[in-house]
Amino acid sequence: MVFAEGGDLQSALENNDQLFVYLKGKIPDEQIISLAPLLPSAATQEANRRRWETLWSDKNRTIVQTLFVEEGEKVGFLPHAFDPFIERLSVKPVAVSIEGLKKVGLGDIIDSMKGLVASFLLTFTEIGYGLA
């Protein structure tokens, strides 16, 4: 088990994001258990949001919508069948927070993966090596 610490929650989460990325390059995914994918730092969430917005630019959304209409009609979909999906792409995502995760029923998982130790907020990444 490896701990990432920080002077506050965001610092700990940023350090944990970096640790998770580092470990993913060294250890098989199935051997890493981390809070990082579930609760990334605010900085990581912002970077992810920017990449999402770039991917789903007006131009790309229009291309995908046109393809959905053209290809969908070939297999019996109505022209506007995928409009809700396309419209959803324009909605700005809500930032992930501990409170939000608890509201959707993940409180026990979050509580088990975070701790307060000696006035430092810590997040942890568990590394499994298949040792018995």
Describe the overall structure.
The structure is a single chain. With 132 residues, the chain is of the alpha+beta class. The chain folds into two domains: 1-40 and 107-132, no CATH class; 43-95, no CATH class. Helix content is 52%, strand content 15%. It is built from five helices and four strands. Strands 1, 2, 3 and 4 form a four-stranded antiparallel sheet that branches. Strand 3 and strand 4 form a beta hairpin. The radius of gyration is 20 Å and the shape is elongated. The two termini are 15 Å apart. The model is unreliable at 116-121 (pLDDT under 50).
Short description:
The protein is of the alpha+beta class and about 130 residues long. The chain is built from 5 helices and 4 strands; from the N terminus they run E-H-E-H-H-H-H-E-E.
Per-chain topology:
Blueprint (H helix, E strand, L loop, with lengths): L1 E5 L2 H16 L7 E3 L7 H14 L2 H17 L8 H6 L9 H16 E4 L2 E8 L5
Antiparallel strand pairs: 1-4, 2-4, 3-4
- Proportion of β residues? 15-25%
Strand tally: 4
- Whole-Å distance between the termini? 15 Å
Count of separate structural domains: 2
Mean pLDDT: 83
Class per helix and strand makeup: alpha+beta
Give the proportion of residues in helices.
Answer: 40-55%
- Principal-axis shape equals elongated
Low-confidence stretches: 116-121
